[in-house]
Prior knowledge:
The protein is α/β, with parallel strands linked by helices. The chain folds into 2 domains: 4-141, Rossmann fold (3-Layer(aba) Sandwich); 143-187. Helix content is 53%, strand content 12%. The chain has 7 helices and 5 strands, in the order βαβααβααββαα. The protein has a 5-stranded parallel sheet with strand order 2-1-3-4-5, with helices on both faces. Helix 1 (19-31) packs across helix 6 and helix 3 packs parallel to helix 5 (75-89). The N and C termini lie far apart (84 Å).
Amino acid sequence: MTVLSESKRFFLSHNGADKDLVREVAKGLEAANRTVFFDEWSIEYGESIPGAISTALEKFDAMILFWSKKSSASAWVREEFQAAVSKFVESDSRAFVVVKLDRTEIPALVAHRKWINGGEGDPERIVAALIGGRDHNHFPSNPAEDESSLVSELAQTKLSFEQFKRDLQRKSEIREAEKTDLLFRDE
């Protein structure tokens, strides 16, 4: 597989819900002298959308899949992903990278690949990772690092849940005491 930092032509696959972030990434890549296929810039009015996408997938050397809950449910993104799998995943001259925007599970066919954590929504950091910059403090790019943050988040959630249970128990005890108090008053 080609080294991502050597790639000059980037195909950006995304869902419309993520378009604002992807647009900023596209601008950053163009500012870094990379050619970008970004649907709203790259497809002319009247042009066949599937035809333009197919042509771009043939010409571009890096497929960047912006992965989120919305994109995982998108028929267009799924079509682009399926087309790219045959062209990019097994190629020695092309790069395939996932930019993970939330905790949605990455497709099994590419889950083993190192991915970029784009969950912070910072286009500059995403661009830096795509063109070869490394900012490991902001890009836990492997599942083990992500798992560590999940464990921390889970611990916080567990503490919050334990507090919730204690509060609920206290409220229940107060209600019981109030009921008992009312019973004795009625007698």
